[in-house]
């Protein structure tokens, strides 16, 4: 669900909802090997190809690696990337870049009302007389 800024012709432009990405890693931890390799090889190209996203690299010694994504709506998402390879980390970053930051909720009913009725939902056949032959 990407936000668009409306134009008079009905078209809009895309506004990336991902505001900031923080890559947390441990300098000596074995579970951070993939993220350290990603930082050495791919983080600059990711930052250049996504100038609208601020990319921070932060060292957290003694902790497992993680990605912290902050969105424009104020929500944040933390992804644990322990023992992941470079390609998996790149896929996670692309996925986070494409998301809106809105928490996904299951829709329980196809309708909503503030004043629920004990009679049930209305249909065109609710008060229709039955056919008698």
Automatic annotation (TrEMBL):
Domain of life according to the entry: Eukaryota
Cellular localisation: Mitochondrion
Respond yes or no to whether keyword Ribosomal protein is given for this record.
yes
Where it mainly occurs, coarsely classed, is mitochondrion
Q: Which residues form the Ribosomal protein/NADH dehydrogenase domain?
A: 27-100
Q: What's any GO biological process attached to this entry?
A: mitochondrial translation
Q: Name one GO cellular component term.
A: mitochondrial large ribosomal subunit
> Which Gene3D superfamilies does the protein's record reference?
Glutaredoxin (3.40.30.10)
Q: Name one Pfam family in it.
A: L51_S25_CI-B8
State the SMART domains in the record.
L51_S25_CI-B8 (SM00916)
Keywords recorded for this protein, A-Z:
Mitochondrion, Ribonucleoprotein, Ribosomal protein
Gene Ontology MF terms in the entry: structural constituent of ribosome
Report the family membership: Belongs to the mitochondrion-specific ribosomal protein mL43 family.
Which protein is depicted? Large ribosomal subunit protein mL43
